[in-house]
């Protein structure tokens, strides 16, 4: 690695050294080579193209899919003294023209642009007259038609190589299994690019999965008790669900905001701005609140409903703990989630091949949820990465689940589904198994079936666990054309004939209502500050919040919590000592150094 790259890393970005394969990626791109980079969220992907753009002559052009991502990245770079800009629909004609003038006159180091704008004939013509240092294609998994964020425009980005074959390109993503990586390389004509694949592991995240009790909101509230005053994201299945959950959280005294694509645009943008700029906001959202959420101090991501795939789950949970500090990801799901998602997939406009793929990914996520092995092993295994041994930072490692021989219970359940005509959901079948004399049972004469009351040795919660695990194991499936009725699959035959044994997870005991979550033990602990350091840290956070409000920017753009924590612990006496703390480059030292020292002095 050249001295100039290390000098820029320290002087501009405030880091004393590279992480992982950053140095090799920077060297590859700086020397004119192409690269395909897979690096987990928070792993430092942006630096891999930002630094080479500063080292090479011209402007680095970054293809970015979301406005929020562009604006955050540009504001952060400007705080570092980097000449950065973006072109998107938020700019009026005069502002856009000024950015284009800066590009042509060589006044920009980095320019962020959406793929739709880049692909216009006018903009491509503009690039012909500019000096381009490199092309960076962020969120490159959007090129894959099999991925969860497919964007057709990404397919046309091969024009960059066709028209500028000598300008290096880098494609980056945090989420791509092996088939998606191959498709990225093929679709973007990156066959000769060096692939840098970092570990997908996020060791600072604690994974937890619970089985939904009712709507799952009470369980969510119990979980949030352990994260009072912290920033976090709660993902829900639908717009209506988002509104409902946000209202229930607000009623419980939680500073929660909704976010979904059906909201009025200014309200949605205002809620996102509050989440990014204020501390302690809980955003309840659909996956519309997605890529480009760059807030580093998100301490938890909760899914109150089941996501559609492991890739989607991984990317959404990756928004927690981007600063490297401990964070928790929590998922609740039930059989109703499976029915809803299967219905969404099967009634969609996609072709049959796409539907089969999405159903397979949903089944893989169900298997992950029901697994008794280490969560991290299962998650990384999906991306083709082995993880040796138990991680010690997931629910299955911290509280190993017990299993039981569920063969006979499974045979009873499958038989009852068959005897009732494979036309009812789990609730009614469970009533038949338990001998519940409901109106519906009487209406259909199911009290006369041979399976009537043969399952009264298990309670309703245990039977729901059995049916959920039978669906996860592929022995039952929900018929979405008949309102989620359960029906047998071909794989159920060996179980019914006594040729296959099954083991099920024990259902966890139902927690007492209103039980308070515990702060300790909810996630891997952060480094505790001593009393004096905590006082300095709190003072610095207050100063940072006030400064951010004055500039109308997110607080983390000024300094991350981890940087403030390091300052509070070191308690530097002068600018020279302050400059040695990671995360403080020359521009931020000039801009904020004196204020930081003054607040440290006042807090003493």
TrEMBL record:
It catalyses: Couples ATP hydrolysis with the unwinding of duplex DNA by translocating in the 3'-5' direction. Its cofactor is Mg(2+); Zn(2+). InterPro entries: DEAD/DEAH_box_helicase_dom, DNA_helicase_ATP-dep_RecQ, DNA_helicase_ATP-dep_RecQ_bac, Helicase_ATP-bd, Helicase_C-like, HRDC-like_sf, HRDC_dom, HRDC_dom_sf. Belongs to the helicase family. RecQ subfamily. Gene3D superfamilies: HRDC domain, P-loop containing nucleotide triphosphate hydrolases, Winged helix-like DNA-binding domain superfamily/Winged helix DNA-binding domain. It comes from Lysobacter stagni. Residues 530-604 form the HRDC domain. This is DNA helicase RecQ. Residues 216-363 form the Helicase C-terminal domain. The keyword Metal-binding applies. Its EC number is 5.6.2.4. Residues 26-194 form the Helicase ATP-binding domain. Pfam families: DEAD, Helicase_C, HRDC, RecQ_Zn_bind, RQC. Keywords: ATP-binding, DNA damage, DNA recombination, DNA repair, DNA-binding, Helicase, Hydrolase, Isomerase, Metal-binding, Nucleotide-binding, Zinc. GO terms for molecular function: DNA helicase activity; hydrolase activity.
């Amino acid at each position: 690695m050249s001295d100039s790259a290390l000098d820029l890393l320290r002087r501009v970005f405030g880091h004393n050294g590279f992480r992982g394969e950053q140095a090799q990626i920077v060297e590859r791109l700086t020397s004119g080579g192409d690269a395909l980079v897979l690096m987990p969220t928070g792993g430092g992907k942006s630096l891999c193209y930002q630094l080479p753009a500063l080292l090479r002559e011209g402007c680095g052009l970054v293809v970015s899919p979301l406005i929020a991502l562009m604006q955050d990245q540009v504001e952060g770079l400007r705080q570092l003294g980097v000449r950065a800009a973006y072109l998107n629909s938020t700019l009026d004609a005069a502002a856009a023209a000024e950015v284009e003038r800066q590009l042509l006159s060589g006044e920009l180091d980095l320019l962020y642009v959406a793929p739709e704008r880049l692909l216009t004939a006018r903009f491509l013509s503009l690039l012909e007259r500019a000096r381009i240092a490199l092309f960076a294609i962020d969120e490159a998994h959007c090129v894959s038609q099999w991925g969860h964020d497919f964007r057709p425009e990404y397919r046309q980005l091969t024009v960059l190589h066709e028209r500028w074959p000598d300008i290096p390109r880098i494609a980056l993503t945090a989420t791509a299994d092996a088939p998606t990586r191959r498709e990225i390389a093929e679709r973007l004509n990156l066959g000769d690019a060096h692939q840098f694949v970092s570990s997908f592991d996020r060791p600072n995240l604690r994974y937890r999965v619970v089985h939904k009790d009712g709507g799952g909101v009470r369980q969510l509230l119990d979980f949030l008790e352990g994260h009072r005053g912290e920033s976090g994201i709660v993902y829900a299945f639908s717009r209506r669900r988002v509104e409902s959950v946000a209202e229930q959280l607000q009623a419980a005294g939680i500073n929660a905001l909704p976010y979904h694509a059906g909201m009025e645009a200014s309200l949605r943008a205002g809620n996102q701005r509050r989440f990014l700029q204020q501390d302690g906001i809980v955003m309840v959202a659909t996956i519309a609140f997605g890529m480009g959420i760059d807030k580093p101090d998100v301490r938890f991501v909760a899914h109150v409903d089941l996501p559609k795939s492991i890739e989607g789950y991984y990317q959404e949970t990756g928004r927690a703990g981007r600063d490297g500090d401990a964070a928790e990801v929590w998922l609740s799901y039930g059989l109703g989630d499976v029915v809803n998602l299967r219905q969404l997939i099967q009634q969609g406009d996609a072709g049959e091949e796409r539907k089969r793929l999405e159903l397979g990914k949903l089944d893989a996520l169900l298997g992950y949820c029901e697994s008794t092995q280490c969560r991290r092993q299962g998650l990384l295994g999906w991306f083709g990465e082995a993880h040796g041994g138990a991680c010690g930072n997931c629910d299955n490692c911290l509280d190993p689940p017990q299993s039981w021989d569920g063969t006979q219970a499974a045979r009873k359940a499958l038989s009852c589904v068959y005897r009732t005509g494979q036309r009812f959901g789990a609730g009614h079948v469970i009533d038949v198994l338990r001998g519940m004399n409901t109106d519906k049972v009487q209406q259909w004469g199911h009290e006369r079936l041979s399976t009537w009351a043969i399952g009264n040795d298990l309670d309703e919660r245990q039977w729901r666990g059995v049916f959920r695990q039978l669906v996860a194991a592929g022995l039952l499936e929900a018929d979405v054309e008949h309102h989620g009725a359960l029906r047998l699959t071909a794989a159920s035959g060996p179980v019914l004939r006594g040729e296959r044994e099954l083991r099920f997870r024990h259902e966890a005991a139902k927690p007492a209502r209103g039980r308070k979550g515990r702060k300790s033990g909810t996630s891997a602990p952060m480094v505790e500050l001593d009393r004096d350091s905590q006082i300095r840290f709190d003072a610095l956070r207050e100063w940072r919040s006030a400064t951010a409000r004055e500039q109308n920017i997110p607080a983390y753009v000024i300094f991350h919590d981890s940087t403030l924590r390091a300052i509070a612990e070191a308690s530097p006496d002068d600018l020279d000592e302050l400059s040695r703390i990671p995360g403080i480059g020359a521009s931020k030292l000039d801009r904020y150094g004196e204020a930081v020292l003054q607040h440290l002095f006042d807090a003493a």
